Amino acid sequence: MRKLMLLAFFIVLLVIAGCNSTGTITSLDQDEEIVRIGYQKNGPLLLLKSLGTLDERLEKQGFKVEWKEFQAGPLLVEALNAEAIDFGRTGNTPVIFAQAADTSFTYVAAGFSKYKGSGILVPNDSDITKLEDLKGKRIGFSKGSSSHYLLIKALETAGLTLDDITSAYLTPGDARVAFEQGTIDAMVVWDPYVASTELESNGRLLIDGEGLTTDRDFFVATETFKEKYPEVIEIIIEEVAASSRWANENPDELVDMLVPILGIDEAAIRMMIERRTYGVEDLSEEIMEEQQEIAGIFYQLDIIPKSIKVRETTE
Fold this sequence. Notes:
Helix content: 40-55%
Structural class: alpha/beta
Radius of gyration: 22 Å
Strand content: 15-25%
């Protein structure tokens, strides 16, 4: 009986040893630790996953990568907060909402600006030719998204505010339907929706994000993962940079990769790629100042519940 009790005790110790404080499990058979990465379709981490280079490199370090797909940035950040994933990528606004909701995460790096692929679309035959013409119009956009911020900044340059338009809070897909049916006068969205609307739904790009927003990706991680595995974070960012260079240098192969994954017409994918440069960079003061501006505007408009300091999530 005593031998059985000792055996059971040692089995429990082995199971405990297979888990760390982040909830990541170490395989008792392969002695590999799991790195759980959240990604979205059409994001830079999708490229990295598809190329397989990170999996190969981390395997040599004793880590196995588990890829978890998310339909939207807010869901990905929620998973970070629950420590269901260790690392991920999202847009510039989900992290604002997450911090305002006291979500535990930390910024790691930023993606290159992709402002050329974000903008305000109107029908080809619309009499809207300048931003001032948006006054009194019904405009579709996703509430709290990067498009929401772009619209605010665009209206500002024309001496307008959100009070001067009728806001229609719609997902990109629903906005596209409303745009085609003529129930909205304009829509604000990002690629590949911009490109597909231009090519397939008689959309005209009134303005893109130039001078208004950089519309960056942000790479984020749990605080515990960043503290425990800084070398893994470094490897991930290095491989993101490498896969970004591959994407910029091999547009035809990138089109072939994305068309079946995104299920969007090849011409729209090519247009999206032609006006985007993939890449990753450090969190500069300028980058974080724009994030702080977004947070400040969203707080003033009661879009987030409290004032935040975005730099607190990088320290």
